[in-house]
Amino acid sequence: MKRAMLTALVAARRNRQAAVLVRGLTSGRQCVVTERECHGDTDVMDASIIQAARAALRLDGASVIEASGEPFLVQTEASPVRLFIIGAVHIAQALIPMARQLGFELCLIDPRTAFASPERFPDILIDNRWPKEAMPDYRLDARTAVVALSHDPKIDEPALQAAMDSSAFYIGALGSKANHLKRLGRLAALGYSDEQLRRIHGPIGLPLGGRSPAEIAVSTLAQVIQSRNSG
Length: 231
Fold this sequence. Notes:
Blueprint: H1 3-14, E1 19-24, E2 30-33, E3 38-40, H2 47-55, E4 62-67, E5 70-77, E6 82-86, H3 90-101, E7 105-109, E8 125-127, H4 131-134, E9 144-148, H5 153-164, E10 170-173, H6 177-189, H7 194-197, E11 200-201, H8 213-230
Parallel strand pairs: 6-7, 6-9, 7-8, 9-10, 10-11
Antiparallel strand pairs: 1-2, 1-5, 2-3, 4-5
Helix pairs in contact: 3-8
């Protein structure tokens, strides 16, 4: 492995960023791909290989792809997928145990300390800062999902802005269709494009017809999983 590739892998791990190691199984060509950089034999790599490697940043494990008549091993090196939950609400209480079982690294953000407390949410990282202050510290990336559940624009919308400004693979927001349209209008007024706004899943979750907090949590987590695996 070339020194630049090894350096890129070490730096990605140190900074908690995903990296993909690509190896040509017949030619021996290799490269390391991150969200913004490529190192190694990139001058002889087909663009489709780099694109496939970036799509694999959100996934785990390894796969084999065909490009330019050659099989390539694509192997992701990354920390656990992160789920940021905005709002210490009843849905969050149901969502967190399910997400933990699936191996998500969890963070709950809510400035309302009466709600976002260790007593109500044990064994989870709780950040009691306002999302506008907290989100920039977490370096949202392609292995990040953000669900805004507080139903309070002052809490949810700064988190949604941070997510849209990142490469997060999933962004969802709780609320009715009417409230979501109003939310999109406020975000559009801040300069966000239609393409960016379409990244927000709202109303949040797959349309399973559920109404209870636990049922909404199931539909939300299902949509997160669907988004991650569908690319």
